[in-house]
Inverse folding.
């Protein structure tokens, strides 16, 4: 694993880094030995490109317990997948339910539709970011069409009870859409057991793929009610000027990011080989270690659950008398620690936990971080707190 010497990368919730060597090898192989467009020609290189795409669908299907790989539609990221799901499903007069912990990739499409006549209910979460599944029931109306929630917050790391929410949605005949941008590849997902109808995911985070990759799982039958986000050439049914109505072609107009999908497929297979439970245990231990050590520091405020088992490997915090941007800059310049300050594209979540408008600083650990990285982060925070305290005393 090649990495910049002495650099500690704790921004995996934005993009995972470094990537497994398998991902790099797969992308290089595609670039050097394949290079053609899948489904656009009949020669051997195009056929090989098509095989690369299908093998990526198959690996993701196994990871999410999807029986038919063709139920997975490729997009350029989770944002595009969520736009496809939300704008393709909902229309004026419909009612949707979501939570106060959502990323703007959920909130902005919903707010845009709300301006056009769709009704929206925003269920308030607790200060830790928890959502009570029972609150879903009290918000259901005659025109409720869908429940759309994040699987885990990118601010507090809190894991929402998606299986319970999914069962409630299924019992009431509602379409359940889950934003798995932070959880796909990090914790087990079974779309059947969780009653998930639409699963949006990105490739460049815990799936260890490159940026510009992602997708949407669409439960069988829903393709009859979800409108495409774009239409155009698919390489199939080219004799017709109407968009194909079958999966996944209905939603995949234009040439796919095949080199990116080669990397995404390698990342997904890497997870399947290592075991997602193994990855989860590693990241949970790193998070738990940081939380335990950070709680002993005077001058730090931690957000979210104390128990690492109730969260993904994301920790938001603030330091006394320092803004999040000050903290992030000092961590970068003085300690070579990469983190992310601010609102994390989730203003509603920060309002929920009381950190709006400045936000927090966020550490997000990954499978390739180590206990030494955690210890270095703790020591850096301790030094920043001490320096600020000393500065205050001297003035």
């Amino acid at each position: 694993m090649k990495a910049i010497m002495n650099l500690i990368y704790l921004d995996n919730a934005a993009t995972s880094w470094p990537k497994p060597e398998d991902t790099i090898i797969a992308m290089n192989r595609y670039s050097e030995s394949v290079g053609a467009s899948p489904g656009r020609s009949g020669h051997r290189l195009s056929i090989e490109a098509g095989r690369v795409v299908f093998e990526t669908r198959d690996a993701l299907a196994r990871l999410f317990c999807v029986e038919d790989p063709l139920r997975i539609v490729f997009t350029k990221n989770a944002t595009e997948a969520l736009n496809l799901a939300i704008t393709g499903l909902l229309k004026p007069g419909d009612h949707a339910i979501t939570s106060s912990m959502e990323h703007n990739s959920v909130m902005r499409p919903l707010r845009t539709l709300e301006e056009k006549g769709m009704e929206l209910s925003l269920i308030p979460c607790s200060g830790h970011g928890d959502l009570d599944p029972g609150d879903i029931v009290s918000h259901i109306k005659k025109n409720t069409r869908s429940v759309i929630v994040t699987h885990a917050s990118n601010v507090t790391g809190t894991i929402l009870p998606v299986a319970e929410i999914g069962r409630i949605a299924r019992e009431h005949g509602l379409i359940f859409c889950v934003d798995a941008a932070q959880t796909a590849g990090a914790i087990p997902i079974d779309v059947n057991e969780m009653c998930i109808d639409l699963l949006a995911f990105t490739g460049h985070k815990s799936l260890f793929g490159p940026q510009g990759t992602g997708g949407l799982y669409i439960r069988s039958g829903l393709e009859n009610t979800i409108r495409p986000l774009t239409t155009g050439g698919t390489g199939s049914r080219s004799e017709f000027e109407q968009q194909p109505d079958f999966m996944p072609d209905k939603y995949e107009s234009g040439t796919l990011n095949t080199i990116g999908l080669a990397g995404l497929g390698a990342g997904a297979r890497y997870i399947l080989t290592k075991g997602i439970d193994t990855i989860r245990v590693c990241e949970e231990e790193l998070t738990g270690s940081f939380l335990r050590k950070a709680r002993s520091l005077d001058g730090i405020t931690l957000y979210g659950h104390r128990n690492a088992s109730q969260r993904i490997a994301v920790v938001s915090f603030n330091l006394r008398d320092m803004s999040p941007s000050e903290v992030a800059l000092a961590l970068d310049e003085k300690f070579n620690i990469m983190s992310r300050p601010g609102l994390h594209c989730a203003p509603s979540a920060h309002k929920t936990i009381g950190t709006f408008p400045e936000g927090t600083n966020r550490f997000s650990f990954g499978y390739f971080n180590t206990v030494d990285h955690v210890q270095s982060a703790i020591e850096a925070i301790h030094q920043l707190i001490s320096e600020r305290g000393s500065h205050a005393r001297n003035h």
In short: The chain has a mean pLDDT of 96. Residues 371-394 form the longest helix (24 residues). Residues 21-274 form a domain with the Aspartate Aminotransferase; domain 2 fold (CATH 3.40.640.10). DSSP finds eleven helices and 13 strands in the chain.
